[in-house]
Amino acid sequence: MFVRKSVALVAIAAVLVAACSNNAGSSSGPGSSSGTGTANCKVGVAWATSQEERYKLRDEPAVKGAVEAGGGTYLSGGDAQNKADIQATQIATLLASNINVLVINAVDPVAVLPSMQAAIDAGIPVIAYDRELENAKALFLTHDNVLVGHMIADAVTKVQPTGNYVIIKGDKTQTNPIFLRNGMEEVLKPLTDSGAIKIVAEEFTPDWKAEAAQTEMENILTAHPDVQAVLSENDNMATGVTAALGGNADGKVKIGGQDGDTFALNRVALGTQVVSVWKNSIELGQAAGKAALELCKNPDITKVTGAKASKTAGGLDSYSLLLNPVPITKDNLQVVLDANWITKDVLCKGVTAGSVAGC
User: N or C: which end of the chain has fewer CB within 10 A?
Assistant: First the structure.
C-alpha cells in the first residue's frame, strides 16, 4: 500500500464549486462533445513543482509554445511546491477560468483525484502529464518509464556487473517509482538470482529531494560502507547520492540516473555518473500542447494522435501516449550537444579536453 496524503477539505470544496460553475453554462461550453476550435482553446496546466531543473526550463515553455503556436491560450496554475492542498486550490482556479483542457502534473496521484473528477464531471478532458492518474478517462502522456528504469540498470550493470547495489527510489505516493523499479528489475533479476549482485539497500525518497537522498545514502553507507553501484530514479536524487559519496570524484561508485539534467550530464562527462537517461522534456511538452489542442476539437482521448490502449497501474483500461527515452553515457554525449539540450561549456566544465567525445 502506498502512503497517501490527504487534501484539505476546503481545497476539495473549492474544486467542486469550480466544477459546478463550469457545468452551469451552455452545451457548447468547456468539454462539450461538439468541441471547439483551437483559436478558442484554453489549456490550463497544474504543475507539481519547479524543484527539478526541467519543469520550468523545458517542460512548461514547450507546452506553452505548442499551445500558442496552434492558436490556443495557455494558463498556468503556478508551482504547487509539491503540496497537494496548494495544487487542489490551483486546479479549482483553473476550472473557474473556463478552460477547455486540463493538464495535470500531479503532486499526489491519490489526493488529486477529486480535482480531476471535478474537471471530468464538467466535461473537460484531462491529460496526466508525466505522472499517471488512476482514472480511465485521463490520457497519460509521458516517456516510457519502465524502459527508463531498464536503461539505467543496463548501463550501470555493464560497467559494474558484480557487487553491492543501492537503489534510491522516488516518492512512494507516486506510480513512476514503480514503473522505473520494474524496468530495473528486468536487468537486475538474473544478476541477483545468480548472486553476482546484492541489493544491500533500497529506499523511497520524499518528494524526490536531493537532500533526502543524501541523508538516505549517508545512512546506508554507515551500515554498508562497501557499495559499488547506486541506481537513482532521477538525476536530482543522484546529486544527493554524489554528495554523500564526497563527490565520487574517482567514479569508483557507479551511479545511474535519469532526466538529462545539465548538472548530471556534466557528471557523466566527468566520469562521476555512468548514465543519465535523457527524456527530452521539450518534446514531451510539445506533445502535451498538441494533444491538448486536439482535445479541444474532440474531447475523446482515444482519438489523440499516437494514443494507444493501455492499463493504469491499478488495472484500469485507459489510453497513453509514450515517448522514447535515450540513455546518455560518456560514449554518446554528442547527442545532447547536437540537440542543443546543453552547451559544450556546461557539459564539459572541469573535463580534461579530449578525455571524452564531445569535450
Answer: N
Judge: domain 9-143+281-323, CATH 3.40.50.2300: yes
Helix-strand-coil split of the chain, %, nearest 5 = 45, 20, 35
CATH superfamily of 145-279+326-347: Response regulator (3.40.50.2300)
For 241, the grid coordinates are 547520492
Q: Say what the alpha-carbon torsion angle 195, 196, 202, 205 is, to the nearest 10 degrees.
A: -160
Rounded to the nearest 10°, the torsion over CA 47, 50, 56, 58 is: -90
Contacts of 354 (CB under 8 A, 6+ apart): none
pLDDT of residue 53: 79
Q: Where are the alpha helices (DSSP H) in the chain?
A: 9-23, 53-54, 60-69, 84-96, 113-121, 145-159, 176-194, 210-223, 235-244, 262-270, 281-297, 334-338, 344-347
Q: Where are the domains of the chain?
A: 9-143+281-323, 145-279+326-347
